[in-house]
Protein 1
Amino acid sequence: QPCNISGPLLGSWLSQLPEGPLDENWPYACAAGLYGNSTLPHVQSRPTCSGLCPPGHFCATSPTAQPTECPANSFCERGSAQPLRCPEGTYSDTTGLSGAAGCQRCPQGHW
């Protein structure tokens, strides 16, 4: 409801804190699969943080400021919280794959 405010607060946004204890974890860190530009939670307080973890990388912990490159024999799609293993019958010597299409068929006689 409108208030009759005058003086230095005129035109400013005001917020009222709820009664009771404050959540000590606020502001919340970025969730797994997202990354921020700092490990400090107050810098990662936006709902989308800096964005989804980039393709070829995963962001397993919260908060994550430096995405981890996807290891060999796996791939990491955009927004990955954990690497996904190459599908059965395929492998990869390469790190940083962004999709299963980068996995190669195993040579005949190998699995």
Note: DSSP finds no helices and eight strands in the chain.
Protein 2
Amino acid sequence: SLARATPRQFRPRVGAPSASLSGWLPLPSRGTCTRCRLAQSRALEMAGRAIDSDLRKQMQRAIVKHTDMQDEMKNEVLDHISGSIDKFAGAEGVNFEAASRLIKETLDKQYGFNWHCA
């Protein structure tokens, strides 16, 4: 409504007095350009589709670009990390501080000290 609108949302009508509310016209809302409408329609199409199983598998595992750990140790560490994040995931999001603390404590016990988790 006009009573709740801010001055940024309205522009003065040409030739109308600037003090009256009848002198203001609403600006076009955001998202009315062709690119924005196409992006919105694509997002709505994708929102209804299920994620295919190959992509889901890739999204569930971390990508390790470089490590000096052996494959078995690397896989165990990744399992600890994903389990800790899952454990502290809630409706508000992931409690990363608690997950990091659990990851560090677990890896320190299993593989010795000097593990850092940020």
Note: Residues 71-87 form the longest helix (17 residues).
Protein 3
Amino acid sequence: IYCAEALFRAFSFGWQILYDLWFLIDLTLIFVGLLALVVIPMSASSKMTGFEKLLLVRGLRLLRLMRVLRMVHHFKIIWRLVSGFLTAWDTIFASAALILVTLFIFACISIEFIAKEGELLRSPITQPVVE
């Protein structure tokens, strides 16, 4: 699919496409992917198992994720949201810690009340739970 896209773009834009940095990055990633799929598994030493060859190919395929960087300028609103979240992380963490400490304190108080409740200790249903 990536090869077909690169060919279509090359035919539609002609030689001018070679001056586009994103196209050159895409072309490099396609070349690395083809290299990882065809050339490296064939020329690899016989000491490598099939699983190791598969891991090598998958590792090189991760380079295709760089194509996503091309879309970064389209997501300014999402970046503002993420940036705001990262900026407010200290406040969110402090609030969550305060809530957890409050819950812990009330849980300890509740355990004290439940453990000293005589009716719960006498009931055969709740006695194993309370003890």
Note: The chain has a mean pLDDT of 76.
Protein 4
Amino acid sequence: ANRTMACVLLFALLVALGFSFCGSTRRSADWTLARLCIGMFVLLAGMVGACFYTEWKYRDLLLSRTMLLVGIMNTLFATYDIWDDCVARTVPESDAYKFAELVKCDSPKCIGV
């Protein structure tokens, strides 16, 4: 299962890398997404290659722990991002304020909670 999910993540990284090169952006010299995608792709491709082509006894353990780390970091960032965008945001132009106006809610903080 870890090998399959790593291959799915490799495909998603290729899609993100393609978007970083072909997508529209305001700053043409922004290489942050491309560098992160390439770095993660090389790391995961090396681990998947080690899983398929070597007999090292810790090959599956290393890949499973790396996939666990990626999942935990995504969950933590998603939780923080929801809190930052909805609960803690005090800018009247934010999505929480606009949605609160749309549904006639008293406080935009209620939208985040």
Note: The mean pLDDT is 84.
